[in-house]
Amino acid sequence: ANFGGGDRKYVLGKEHPYAKQGSRAHSSRPGSGRRSGVLSRAGGATVSRPSSSNQQRPYPESSMHTKRDGPVMKQPSYSNQQNYNAEPRRSENKAVTSSSAAMELDHAIGFAGHLSNSLFSHKDKMIYAAGGNVIIANPDDPHDQNFLTGGHENQITTIAVNTKADQIASGGEGQAPDVIVWDFPSGKIRYRLQEHEHGISVLAFSNDGRFLATCGNALDKKFFIWDMTTGMIVASTYFDPILMITWGGRVRDKKRRPTSSFLFATISAVGKAQKVSLWALHPSTGKLESVACHCGSHVRMFTSVEFSADGEWLYAGTTSGDIAIFQVKRSVLFSMVNVSGIVGIPTSITVPETSDYQLYVGGANGVVAHLSFDEKSFKSISRVKVDGGVSSLSLSEDKSQVLAGSTTGSITRIHTKSLKVQLVSQSHCASIKSISFSPESSEHFCTATNNGDIFVWNTNNYRISAKISEPRIRATCVVLSEDVMVAGFNDGVIRAYDPETGEKLWKIPNAHKDGVTTLVLSLNQKFIVSGGIRGEVRVWDVRTRQLVCHLKEHSTRVNKVCLYDSNKYVLSCSRDKSFLCWDLMSEKRLTAHSQPMGGINDITLTPDQKTILTVGQERAVSLWNLRSAKPLRQWSHGGEATCVAVAKTAPLIATGGVSRLLMLWDLKTGKCLGKGIGHSATITDVAFSPDDQQVVSVGEDGSILVWNIFV
Fold first, then answer.
1. What is the dihedral of CA 153, 157, 163, 168, to 10 degrees?
2. In this structure, are strands 411-415 and 421-425 parallel, antiparallel, or unpaired?
3. Closest C-alpha among 703, 711, 562 to residue 112
4. What is the C-alpha separation between 637 and 358, in angstroms, rounded?
């Protein structure tokens, strides 16, 4: 066999041992293996002003320790009106319900813009990956989101959408990188494909939706083709790590008539170079045959690949901004065409299914161009510019709009006729370190990230109302109030910004050598308490930006400082396994408490200001009273906890940690009310809204998850 006219034969690939027996129950076992995920439906948020707390002294004068010893959930509004209720993967991770409290995932802010081809348009919805979740969202309504969660323990690395059979496939990283095939109308897991042993690099459905190709990463090197009607393996082989794959319909004979074999193309890594290959799949026998495309003297690094609508041409985007055009009939490079205005990586290409040699191309400079090809050159039909480098392009089924995903985490909708550019959503593209609500309002919160970005979010529409970017430095902590937003950075500087405009107001240089780790703003906004890498706690006058007092007893970095409502006392916790209570009036330590094992990562006060909560490497939640050297009560967290928050109007605690689960606790009993699935990496911070109706968690995966709380 050949590709119809060329003299070069296929190179025989590896035949799957079970191919001649047809399909064998060796693959996904629908309904077996690890259980499927939980999907919840988003709803609106309500806000109100918080009530003020009573000021209390932290302890009786005679009992100081000076020694350091010791609403109803809505259903999705899909046209078929089927409910998204997938079976939970683990029984303890079901949606939280109890007689006292419940929570549900309301909204997810996040888009894996660093992944190529990770955004899809299907049935007026946009589908994309965020951490370990697949998000199905309405681009016209920020509150209309559906979540496919619980299928992956780690971050999703690739997704694909089967528009013919209404299926979504997602693959992840880690030691159990299953490929999950979800049913789009119901949100249930249809297949869990468990053949890969390492991460998944790319997924692709065939044009008719019958087959799914799954490619392992450089450690795995496995390549499978699955039948989506049965969930069985059709063909498999070991191959050089495949970076990209696309299907091209049927293989054609010499007279260009379609045969029973299926055509697809891959771009694989061969050392430091890349190879373009054309493949033929014979589904009746399970044979795979391939031929390498000759590129002549041209050497390029490819970023995307797509067939023309008739399967006669193969377009491949390159890091240099030009497009390599391969003639499928002869398996050779036909030409290299430079696209004016498109520069650098990544380049994303999407091709209308019924167009005559037309395609949409996106570049690293944010330009999205609509082009036509006449076998000699490309002609620009139209072009627009979006924020950030374009990593994903997806054309709607009616060709009226193109969704563009960028490396900055934004999703933009482009109307193909009017060329109107509409920003649909924004998100962080780096690890998030801190979150803070304004004490006065639940309508805004801010987040700070590892790449120096600080965003102020509006909870009514989940849009960014103010944006700050400090290049080449990392934001480590942030505090929001109605009048000012204060952040600490790893360069040791404390900076203040206007929360409405993002304008820089002032800064305190050299606040902490080696970096600021934590800070808190007093309720009267007259002073700031900060902690640093070297274990020092410092108090700064906001008006003069001068050092008021310096407190140093911790032997290593201060992880958190917490201020009493009276503004007279402050708590500090450290990796040195201790937390201290300081009197700011006398500038002296009043009490010192320590735990036997592990550092303390976070500390907070209960609303009555009488007891203290700590979490850390001891893998427990500890409730303290300053009159006692040992915890009043302690319960297991199940893993290292990194953050803790307490509700103001209800006896609830929220914690997060390396387990990637948001955990809701009863403060009075220490009972775990439930665990929320959503993050694919360590949860770094958590905060209740001032009205206690929502809790927001952020993590190293760059995701912001907003949870509704019902009491």
1. 0
2. antiparallel
3. 703
4. 56
